[in-house]
Write a structure and sequence with these properties.
- Keywords: ATP-binding, Kinase, Nucleotide-binding, Receptor, Transferase.
- By secondary structure, this protein is α+β, with helices and mostly antiparallel strands.
- It is 37% helix and 16% strand.
- It has two domains: 8-123, Phosphorylase Kinase, domain 1 (2-Layer Sandwich); 130-254, Transferase(Phosphotransferase), domain 1 (Orthogonal Bundle), CATH 1.10.510.10.
- It has helices at residues 8-26, 39-45, 84-97, 130-136, 143-162, 206-209, 220-233, 244-254, and strands spanning 36-37, 54-57, 61-67, 70-76, 108-112, 119-123, 168-169, 178-180, 186-188, 195-196.
- Strands 1-5-6-4-3-2 form a six-stranded mixed beta sheet. Strands 7-10 form a two-stranded antiparallel ribbon.
- A hairpin with a 5-residue loop joins strand 8 (178-180) and strand 9 (186-188).
- Helix 7 packs antiparallel against helix 8.
- The N and C termini lie far apart (60 Å).
- The mean pLDDT is 85.
Length: 258
């Protein structure tokens, strides 16, 4: 059955105005153009939102789509209650992700404004989230793989904190929001809660943090270094916490600990 989009002109005007307002506020009036897809294009790309194409249903419903031969992820607000909060949540992702071009951040391709809550189109990430791998694998993720993932995500966070003139703070980094591409390269996703910082603004012991049963023989010194770094990252006072650049450097240095 073909899906109907009631009032799509009205939605387009309202969502377009909100998107422009957010772009101006987040980038000093120098917003990066976002490709706008029509509702019909996405309807066709997902075969009328065929449920067999659903890739995930965590915070939103993500379909595997095909746009002009390119496999994409169509991130929809299906099953979410319509509210100004949800409209802003999806638009916020569009405005922040379009500013980011990093190999460890999920790439935004565009959005659709003709639906009551906007729909996002992103690169397709096929191999699930870190949360999936933590909970579904009978074999624990090795320390070397954990360090590899942590280092690459730290690089991504360093980039969004430091490269743009207005830093982007993700505010929701957790296993569900770290995805793995076809080569199991980790990528940071879901920027719905992120904020852009205007110019001039700033954004227990080892055994209490690390499960000793998960630490293999010879890895305690390395895990202690990670636990110490983690404690620094959760200090109450912002000035006592390391920057993401310092975190990334420390993770890379830790690779040399044996």
């Amino acid at each position: 059955m073909k899906r109907k989009f009631e009032g799509k002109e009205e939605y387009f005007m309202r969502n377009g105005a909100l998107l422009l307002e957010k772009q101006i506020a987040s980038s000093d009036g120098k917003g990066i153009p976002i490709r706008i897809f029509t509702a019909e294009e996405l309807n066709k790309a997902t075969n009328n939102y065929d449920t067999s194409l659903i890739n995930s249903r965590i915070q939103s419903t993500v379909y595997k789509g095909n746009l002009d031969g390119q496999i994409v992820a169509v991130k929809t607000p299906e099953r979410l209650q319509v509210s100004s909060y949800m409209i802003n949540f999806f638009l916020n992702q569009a405005v922040t992700q379009i500013q980011i071009n990093h190999k460890h951040v999920v790439k935004l391709l565009g959005c659709c404004l003709e639906t009551e809550i906007p729909i996002l189109v992103q690169e397709f990430i096929p191999n699930g989230s870190l949360a999936n791998h933590i909970t579904s694998n009978s074999v624990p993720i090795s320390w070397s793989d954990r360090l590899h993932i942590a280092t690459q995500i730290a690089d991504a966070v360093t980039y969004i904190h430091c490269v743009n003139s207005n830093p982007i703070i993700h505010r929701d980094i957790r296993p569900n929001n770290i995805l793995f591409d076809k080569n199991y390269v980790p990528k940071l996703s879901n920027f719905g809660l992120s904020v852009v910082i205007p110019p001039g603004k700033t954004a227990g012991c080892h055994d209490q943090i690390v499960d000793a049963s998960k630490v293999e023989k010879g890895e305690r010194v390395q895990s202690l270094a990670y636990a110490t770094l983690a404690l620094k990252c959760v200090q109450f006072k912002g000035e006592e916490r390391p920057t993401m650049m310092e975190v990334a450097k420390e993770l890379r240095r830790s690779k040399g600990i044996t």
